[in-house]
Amino acid sequence: MPPYKTDWIKLVKQTKAISMNIIKSCLIIGLACLTLLSCDDEAAQPQPTVSSLSISEGVVGTNVTITGTNFGTVAADVEVFFNTTEATVSSVTATTITTVVPAGATSGVVKVKVKALQASGPSFTVLAPITVSATAFTRTLPENPVGVEGPFVLGTVSATTNRGTLTYTLSSQTPANAMAINSSSGQLVIANTNLFDFEVNPTITGVVTVANGSETATANITITLSNVEEVTLSNLAFAKAENPDVENLSIGSVACCWIGGSPAFAITSQNPAGAVSINPGTGQITISNANAFDFETNPTITGTYSVSSQSETKTANFTITVTDVAEVVAPAVSVIAIAGIEATSGCADGTGTTVRFTKPHLGQAKQADGDPLELYIADKNCGARKITITGTGTTSVTATTLQTNNDPATYEYVDMLN
Q1: In 3-state terms, what secondary structure has residue 149?
Q2: Among 198, 211, 141, which Cα is nearest to 171's?
Q3: How far, in Å, CA of 394 to CA of 417, rounded?
Q4: What pLDDT digit, counting tens, does each position of 289-325 carry?
């Protein structure tokens, strides 16, 4: 090969080598410039800060707003961590981030990362979900309970919550309005004592709702009543003399055992009918028909009576023994308008079979247990006189002057008896 060709080849090789070095240098310089530009961009991003949280505690799923600076406006550039658990970012502005407490989060510092830069904020306490539990309430007690200085206390509904306060409500009850409950303590009391009646409501039920915010629990209420004898009666026995007068109509009264301040009394049957009656409020038994109290016709008067208290009614018998009284039949007396004895006019005293007087002013018959029958007369001729009539064997009439005719118009019966 001629020498000039060899030199030419060397020159070409050297030129290629120089060109390659130049290209490599340019590439290195370009890469260096790109690196420098990238470094300038990172340095230009401002440092984010976290100043506050909208709330400092809450359960999983609670919305939280983070306030700070330099968050940007692109949600994809922002990451939020509750302690070490990442949360979902709902929205971003330069100064606020809206997020939700994530499942599995634990209490700790809230951190915000914008691109490559991170900032730490206040601590957040992750709360366990609110729980409420309540226990069924049962009680057995005698009917007709009475409270001391206030409503009768049945007891307190037992309920718990892991935090916060509870509110108690009677959401239902049967019968209605039988019970009431304290909304803050859960104390259960009787609202209507009349409904706690074994014969009417042997069992009283209800449901109590216990709430803590939106979390609730229910407790069943069961009150079982036991029976109490509200009325205890016995058979009554009385004795009454026959032919009672208007001032002696009382028989007696019902006095036994019942619960409640206002019992009701009634005669449910009697023989003969209508003989007696009873005061519905006091239980006093009185004669309604005095003619029925005749020993010769009705030596015994019987019947039944009832007493009602609360919702219970009991019935018992009564017996009235009518006692005999000696009865005197007065002899017939003929009276004509002639004063004096027998057929003689005048005002003489004496004994005969008839008595005569004129213009009687006032008279009163007084019958003793037997003979004689005494008749007191005041007339305008003879003054005041006592007429004694004896009916044994032959009728005998005796006239006796009590007072002469001073002023018979003003003479009164009480004066005759003196």
Answers
A1: coil
A2: 211
A3: 27
A4: 999 999 999 999 999 999 988 778 889 999 999 999 9
Give dist(CA 305, CA 254) in Å, integer. Answer: 9
Residue 338 banded pLDDT, cuts 50, 70, 90? very low
Q: Is 222 helix (H, G, I), strand (E, B) or coil?
A: strand
* pLDDT of 160 higher than 70: yes
Owning domain of residue 381: 340-416
For β-strands 187-190 and 153-156, DSSP reports them as antiparallel
Looking up residue 204, the CATH number of its domain turns out to be 2.60.40.60
Question: Mind listing the pLDDT tens digit for each residue in 245-277?
Answer: 877 889 999 877 776 667 899 999 999 999 999
Q: Is residue 93 part of a domain?
A: yes
Q: Compute CA distances 382 → 339, 359, 378, 400, 413, whole Å.
A: 8, 10, 7, 11, 15
Concatenated DSSP letters for 317-348?
EEEEEEEP-----PPP----S--EETT--S--
The reported pTM is 0.51
Task: Answer yes or no: is 332 within a domain.
Answer: no
Alpha-carbon gap, residue 22 to 25, rounded angstroms: 5
The Cβ of residue 259 has, within 10 Å, a number of other Cβ atoms equal to 16
Kindly state the tokens that stand for 246: 């208007």
- CATH value at residue 58: 2.60.40.10
Is residue 330, in this structure, part of any structural domain at all?
A: no
